[in-house]
Amino acid sequence: MQDVIKNSQSPNIQVGQSIDVQRQGGVIRLPSGKTITRGAVDKSMPRVGGRYLLFLKYDQNTEDYSILMGYQLDGNSVYRLDDLKASDSTDPQVGHLLRSEGITESQFLTRVQASRDCQSG
């Protein structure tokens, strides 16, 4: 974890800490070597090595977090992981094209920080 913008849930998340995160879907490799991808059409999976801003909810029963909403951060662009309407896609896979938020990463993070400051003040 590179940064924690707001931490209103218990247990507290610390920078550099590793946490478990749940997301509906995944990939199964069969004994034959074939892979099957399953998931919700409107929710993309974060990819290993990517940079994301994730809004999480802690589940005390499973002691892990689920993703409420997520954004892929790509320097000049920000892409929403969720909210793809099924009617917009003819290829219902977990790895659908992400929707651009139409602003830079810097602008997006400034808005998120401002929203956090308004809520905590």
Question: Can you walk me through this structure?
Answer:
This protein has 121 residues and is of the alpha+beta class. The chain has one domain. The protein is 13% helix and 31% strand. The chain is built from 1 helix and 7 strands; from the N terminus they run βββββββα. It has one helix at 105-120, and strands at 21-22, 25-29, 35-39, 52-59, 64-74, 77-80, 99-100. The strands form 2 sheets. Strands 1, 4, 5, 6 and 7 form a 5-stranded mixed beta sheet that branches. A hairpin with a 2-residue loop joins strand 5 and strand 6 (77-80). The protein starts with 20 loop residues before the first strand and ends with a helix.
Secondary structure elements and pairings:
Elements: E1 21-22, E2 25-29, E3 35-39, E4 52-59, E5 64-74, E6 77-80, E7 99-100, H1 105-120
Parallel strand pairs: 1-5
Antiparallel strand pairs: 2-3, 4-5, 5-6, 6-7
The general outline is globular
> Helicity, in percent?
10-25%
Q: Can you write the helix and strand succession as a string?
A: EEEEEEEH
Number of continuous helical runs: 1
Main sheet summary: 5 strands, mixed
Multimer state: single chain
- The assigned structural class equals alpha+beta
**Strand residue content:** 25-35%
- Low-pLDDT ranges: 86-95
Separation of termini? 25 Å
Gyration radius from CA atoms, angstroms = 16 Å
How many DSSP-defined strands?
A: 7
Mean pLDDT: 78
Q: Into how many domains do the coordinates divide?
A: 1
